[in-house]
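Milestone M4 deliverable, item 7.
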Amino acid sequence: MSQATLHDLHRPLGSTGLLVSPLGLGTVKLGRDQGVKYPNGFQIPDDDEARMLLKLTRDLGINLIDTAPAYGRSEERLGPLLRGQRKDWVIVSKVGEEFADGVSHHDFSAAHTRLSVERSLQRLETDFIDLVLVHSDGNDMAILNDCEVYQTLAALKVEGKIRGFGFSGKTVDGGLKALEQGDCAMVTYNLNEQSEKPVIDYAAAHGKAILVKKALASGHVCLSPGVDPVRASFQLLFEHPGVASAIVGTINPLHLAHNVSTVAQVLRSN
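Output delivered:
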């Protein structure tokens, strides 16, 4: 049997005009192995392994790739690794969180937002980033109400340096407010955690985009015997018309292929 792919299952990312695969590749593990909440330890792949993983990702029909300045060396590695392939990828990056010496710190000022995006453009070796999300520290409403990050991203969109912007937050209020002016919210939604569902409902009603993080509960999901947790997770996600894509970070080619096969089965049976 031939390998299932997602090539014919791409879908709109809200009203951005972008078409994305229902599964995106998260790349924290390409750049950082400190302070990450996974059940098992891992080794950051070398360039050859990373290149093979990205080729497999593309061959499986995934065109969405998620990175961030807080993901260690992820952006600066992706630039050279994706050289000559810019048209094949929808790239999501972030602003607001920096990670150095094992510790995160946050800056949502206008100056830092602009500096961060310019730096991401250089690292990723591109003239534009498809989508930039605010990497919230959890104080969602304070960030949106009291900081200049959103206005700065709106200006960068007008300048053509980014195609869309949004918010990766932790609260329903933050997600709803972020979607009023922004293009996309990234929410946690999985078998264990569904409190941000109102944000997905709002997005579905208003033509906004939703990306899901922690779709597989960062590998922690447990169900009764005989139930495939990956399939159950993706079934929950894609039953909701507001979900555009789930970002899953993996450096294991077998996990990647299994995830793609499962998403393809779920979407074709819906």
